[in-house]
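Deliverable D2.4 — example input (structure tokens):
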């Protein structure tokens, strides 16, 4: 869901609870931004690659204008205070330009942009100015990451007027701040944020580019995401096998989930990913076409009919409209639907006893049916000898369902009435 205008309240707790609304959730429904932390707002703008302006106002009436272009911050200015003042303050605090020299250059260059004058007087290098502008913007953003509440109003625009060429990468900024906010946290603090997905399978979404990974993640973190977010193991298993500490791994997956670098699915993938799953499903479909109706449903042709409904429900859960395997790709959904059709055919084909008898005779042949039912007859007697009456009754009823022979019926009656003796 996209949005042209969004407004509401941004509310920070100033703790790791400010990770509570991931960016992808806000992108899907911008109404989630009302009451969300500022970090979620930044993730929303970054993931949308938004171009527009946001006005953020504090309870005291202080107003700040933020301008974004393609998901990066390009403008950041308080009403009544030029952004240049923030840059000069940053330069002075970093001792790149001492206050006396700054004032001297300002006096000597009246009417000229002060940043240009600083460069011309060799008070700082171009790199110093870039770092100062970037640092000033990031510091202004940092004000809205503290505990507090602000009202905001967002407007999509075709372009945003720039005051300088420096763009703050929002994704990198978010990651840096999430690391800062969790620097004193332990696994016991972070675990609750991942509690709901511990038994699920993390999958890479493809939104984390190699360039972003190099910028935001360490070598070990990239490796852990590569190995643990391939859809073949649960998050809990991935944490146990991680190259990082428990706390570091928790932090990595919290960041990755907050920015949509991974998504959590209830169904795991085989090694090789979705492509391998699709290949295996195709193979399963072809195999099932050649199997008998009973084997398709996961029962033997000698099984008691009372087991058929449960077997069919199990297969419908696995392949039917609500099955998890259909959630991966359109192709997996198509193949699963074809498999479910085979299950429907099998179940419908053996529901009626006379239809079952005819199908078994046609599929397996008379000699196989005689051999199988005679074996069941002996097994029923063995169960009687062990006084396993319920088992004996189920076995002989299975034989009767296949071939209602007189001595089979007599044995069943004897079992039901408990009139048969062990030595018979």
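Example output (designed residues):
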């Amino acid at each position: 869901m996209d949005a042209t205008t969004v407004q509401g309240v941004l509310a920070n707790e100033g703790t790791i609870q400010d990770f509570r609304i991931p960016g992808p959730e806000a992108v899907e429904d911008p109404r989630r931004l009302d009451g969300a932390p500022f970090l979620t707002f930044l993730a929303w703008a970054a993931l949308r690659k938004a171009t527009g302006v946001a006005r953020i106002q504090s309870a005291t009436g202080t107003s700040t204008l933020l301008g974004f272009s393609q998901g990066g911050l390009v403008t950041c200015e308080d009403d009544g205070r030029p952004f240049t003042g923030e840059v000069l303050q940053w330069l002075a605090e970093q001792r790149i330009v001492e206050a006396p020299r700054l004032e001297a250059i300002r006096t000597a260059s009246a009417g000229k942009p002060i940043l240009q004058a600083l460069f011309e007087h060799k008070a700082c290098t171009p790199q110093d100015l870039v770092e100062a502008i970037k640092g000033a913007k990031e510091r202004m953003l940092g004000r809205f990451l503290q505990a507090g509440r602000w009202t905001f109003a967002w407007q999509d625009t075709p372009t945003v007027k720039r005051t300088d060429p420096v763009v703050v990468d929002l994704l990198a900024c978010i990651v840096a701040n999430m690391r800062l906010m969790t620097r004193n946290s332990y696994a016991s603090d972070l675990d609750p944020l991942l509690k709901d997905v511990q038994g699920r399978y993390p999958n890479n979404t493809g939104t984390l580019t190699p360039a972003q990974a190099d910028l935001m993640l360490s070598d070990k973190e990239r490796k852990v995401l590569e190995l643990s977010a391939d859809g073949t193991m649960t998050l809990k298993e991935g944490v146990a096998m991680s190259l990082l500490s428990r706390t570091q791994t928790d932090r990595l997956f919290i960041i990755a989930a907050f920015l949509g670098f991974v998504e959590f699915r209830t169904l795991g993938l085989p090694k090789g990913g979705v492509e391998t799953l699709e290949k295996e499903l195709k193979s399963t479909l072809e195999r099932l076409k050649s199997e008998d109706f009973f084997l398709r449903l996961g029962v033997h042709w000698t099984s008691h009919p009372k087991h058929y409904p449960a077997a069919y429900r199990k297969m419908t859960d696995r392949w039917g409209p609500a099955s998890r395997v259909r959630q991966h790709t359109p192709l997996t959904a198509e193949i699963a639907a074809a498999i479910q059709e085979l299950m429907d055919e099998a179940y419908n084909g053996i529901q009626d006893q006379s239809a079952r008898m005819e199908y078994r005779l046609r599929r397996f042949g008379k000699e196989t049916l005689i051999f199988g039912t005679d074996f069941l007859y002996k097994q029923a007697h063995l169960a009687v000898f062990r006084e396993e009456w319920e088992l004996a009754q189920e076995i002989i009823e299975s034989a009767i369902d296949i071939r209602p022979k007189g001595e089979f019926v007599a044995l069943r009656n004897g079992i039901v009435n408990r009139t048969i003796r062990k030595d018979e």
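Residues 5-168 form one domain.
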